[in-house]
Amino acid sequence: MPVMTIAKAINEGLRASLKNYPTTLLMGEDIGALGGVYRVTEGLKAEFGADRVVDTPLGESGIIGTAIGLALRGYRPVCEIQFDGFVFPGFNQITTQLAKMHARSDGMLKVPVVIRIPYGGGIGSVEHHSESPEALFAHTAGLRIITPSNPQDAYWMIQQAIECDDPVIVFEPKRRYWLKGEVDLTTPPGEPFTAHVLREGTDATVVAYGPLVPVALAAAAAAAEDGNSIEVIDLRSVSPIDFDTVTASVQKTGRLVVTHEAPTFGGIGGELAARVSERAFLSLLAPVLRVGGFHLPYPVARMEDQYLPDIDRILESLDRALAY
Amino acid sequence: MDVAQSTTSGLDTGSDGGSVISPGPEQGNPDMVQLLTEDGRLLNGSPFGDYAPDPATYESLYRDMYLIRRFDQESTALQRQGQLALWVPLTGQEAAQIGSGRAMAASDYAFPTYREHGVALTRGVDLPDILKLFRGVTNGGWDPREHNFQLYTLVLAAQTLHAVGYAMGIQRDRAADPTAPAAAAVAYFGDGASSEGDVHEAMVFAASFNAPVVFFCQNNHWAISVPSDVQARVPLAQRAAGYGFPGIRVDGNDVLAVKAVTAWALEHAKQGKGPVLIEAFTYRMSAHTTADDPTKYRATADEESWVPRDPLRRLETYLRANGTSGSFFDRLATEAAEQAARLRSTVLAMEAPDLSQRFDTAYAEPHPLVQEELRLWQAYESGFAPEKDGGR
User: Fold this and answer.
1) Which residues of chain B are within 8 Å of residue A106 when distances are taken between CB atoms?
2) Which residues share a beta bridge with A307?
3) Nearest CA-CA distance, residue B53 and chain A, Å
4) Residue numbers in B near A88 (CB within 8 A)
5) In chain B, which end has fewer C-beta atoms inside a 10 angstrom radius, N or C?
6) A136: part of which helix (H) or strand (E)?
7) CA of B9 to nearest chain A CA: how many angstroms apart?
C-alpha cells in the first residue's frame, strides 16, 4: 500500500472523484495554478482544466452560493474555504440555503455540495487561521460534518462526501496535513458517518477527532505505562455522531473523556456527555469529562500551546475519571 | 462572441464589456426604455423595438397582469380573514413580472425572491401552490424542476448567487454538448436587496465567468419603509458598468418594454455575451406585506403620483382604443372571479401537515439521529392516540 500524507491523500481522493464523476468540480480561492494555500489541489487544474478546477473570485458567500446553483443544475461542487475563520462570510449561504434547501423543497431538491475547510490550531498563525467552528455547523440540521484524522480516511472520506446526496462539510486537520500513513486504494474503510475504535481498552474511553486523534493515542500509550487500559475512539463524523459506538465503549469502560480543540461550552463533547448519560447512565463510574478549548477567542500563536489540549491535559482528566 | 469560439477554458469567456445602453429617443420618459406611454400610446424608434412583443400577444399580456392582480387581491383578503399568516402583495409590479416572465423560454430558469407571483404565473405554477408557503403548510409549494422556477427565497439576495451558479452549470452543459439548447438564468431581486453583499458577489462571479444570467432588479422604490435613494445614489442600472456588463433601466410599468428588454438580455446571455442587469423602474402600490403600514412612512401623494402610471391602465387604454372589444374585458373579469373562487376553496382545504412528515425531508440520505428522534416522537404521539380521536 502506498504511503502518503493527509494532504496528498485528499488530493488523490479528489482526483479519483474528478475521474469517476464528470459532474464533480472543485471551486475555491487559489486552488488552480497555486494548488491551494496548502497545495491540497496541486496539479488538478493542469489535469482536469479550468472548468473543473475553478479559481473563483475572492468571496466565500459567492463560492458557496454559486455551488448551490451548480448543484441545482446537477453538478457536485467541492468548495475549498481557505481557512476555518474565513467560512463566516459564507455562513449565511451554508445555514440558510444549503442546509435547508432539501427540506424547503419537501425533499424534491438535492444539493450535494461539499465544503472543505482546513481547521484547528497548532500552526503558529494569525487570527482567524486556527479555529474549530464545527459545533456551529453541527447545530444546523441538514448538514453532515466529517473530519478525517489519517491518510486512509482522508482519501476515502472526501470521495464519500462527494458521493453523498446531502451537503457535507469536511473539516481537514490542517496541522496534520503532513502526517503520513498507508492508504489502501482499493478498499474503503466502511461507512463515512461512523466512529472507529483505534485502540481497545478497559478502564476508560477517550473520544477524539481530527487533529487530536494522535494526541489521544499518545495519551493512551502514556497511560498504559501507568497500568491504565484506555480505549481510543476516532469519532470521524461530528454530524451525525455515531453514538452507538461510543455508548458500547462506555458500557465496557465506565468512563469517558472527550477532547476537541473547540471550546467545550456548547460543543461536541457536551453533546456526547448528554447522550452517554441518557444511554449508559448506569454504566458510568465517573462524570463525563471534557478536554477542550476555553471560552475565549482563539489565542495568539505564542499562547496556543497552553490553550490546545495536549497529552498532559488528557491524562489529567483521565486521572480524575479513574479516581472516582 | 459565439459560444463555439471558446477560449482556453472550454467555456465562452467573451464579453462586450460594460456599457449603459442608450435608453433610446427622447420620448416618454427619457431616463428609461419605454414602448408604451402612460396614456396608452405606442412609441417607435426604440433600439429594443425589434424585441417588442407581437401585437397579437397584447391581450394575453394584459390577461396575465389582470389575473395576477386579482390573485393578489384575493390573497390579501385571505390573509385578512386569518387564512394566511402573511401575504406579500405585488400590485403595481405586474408589468415587470409578466413582461420579464413572458420573455423567458421554458429552458430558462428563474430564481425569485418572494414577491414574484406574476413570474410564477408565467412559469406555469398553479397559483394556489404559491399560498402554501403563506398558509404555513410548506416552505416550498411546487416542484421547481417542473417549472424551471426556483422556490421563494426569504433571505434577500441569496438566490442571486444560486442563479449565477446555475448559469455556470448551463455553460458546462453546453461545453460538453454544444447541441444542447441555449438557456439562461434570471435572478430576481429588488432595490432593497441590491444593498446585500450577495448581489455584489453574484455580479462579480457572473462577470468573471461570463455566466448566462440576467439580473432583474425590480426597483419598487421602497424596501419596506426605506426609500430607494437610501440604497443607491445613482440609478441601480448604472452599477452594471462597474462590473463590466450592460445595465438597462426600463419602465417597469410598461409590459411591452419590459418584455422587449428582457428578451434582448436573454438573447445576449444565451449568445455567450455574458450577464445583463435590468432595472425595472416600478412602484410597490401596496404594502410591503400585510404586516406593514405604509401610512407611517410615505405620503399619500407619493402613492397617488403612481396611479396614472399603473401598468394595467395604460395597456387597457391602448387595447380599448385599438379594437379590443368590451367582451374581452368582461370575459376576463369572469375568469378572474372564477380563479379567485378556486383559490379560496383550494386554500381553505389545505390542511396542516403532521410533524412526522418533516423528518423525511431534512436529509436526502438516512440519518440516524433524525430517525431516532422520529421514533421517539412517534412513540410519544402514540400515547395520545385515544384522546386524539376524541378531539385532542
Assistant:
1) 138, 140, 361
2) none
3) 30
4) none
5) C
6) helix A134-138
7) 5
User: ipTM of this complex > 0.95?
Assistant: yes
φ, ψ for residue A317, nearest 5 deg: -70, -35
Task: Respond yes or no: is residue A129 known to be catalytic.
Answer: yes
Interface of A with B in 189-248 (CB under 8 A): 193, 239-244
Which three cell numbers mark A12? 488523490
Q: Is A69 on the interface with B (CB under 8 A)?
A: yes
Scanning A169-198 for CB atoms below 8 A from B yields 193
Q: Provide the grid cell at B23.
A: 435608453
And the C-alpha cell for B1?
462572441
Q: What is the mean pLDDT of each run of 10 residues along chain A (324 residues)?
A: 97 98 98 97 98 98 98 98 97 98 98 98 97 98 98 98 98 98 94 97 98 98 98 98 98 98 98 98 98 97 97 98 96
Chain A: residue whose CA lies nearest to B197: A61
CA atoms of B66 and A109, how far apart (whole Å): 32
DSSP conformational letter for A189: -
- Give the HSE-up count for residue B321: Cα atoms under 13 Å, Cβ half-sphere: 10
Q: Is the whole-model pTM more than 0.90?
A: yes
Catalytic residue among A102, A129, A196, A260: A129
Q: Which helix (H) or strand (E) holds B294?
A: none
pLDDT tens, B291-311? 999 999 999 999 999 999 999
3-class SS at B368? helix
Rounded CA-CA distance B206/B210 in Å is 5
H helices of chain B, where? 58-80, 94-103, 117-122, 127-135, 144-147, 158-176, 197-209, 239-243, 255-268, 300-306, 311-321, 326-348, 355-358, 368-382, 385-389
Size of interface A-B (CB pairs under 8 A): 152
C-alpha cell at B200: 455584489
- Quickly tell me which residue has 382604443 as its cell: B321
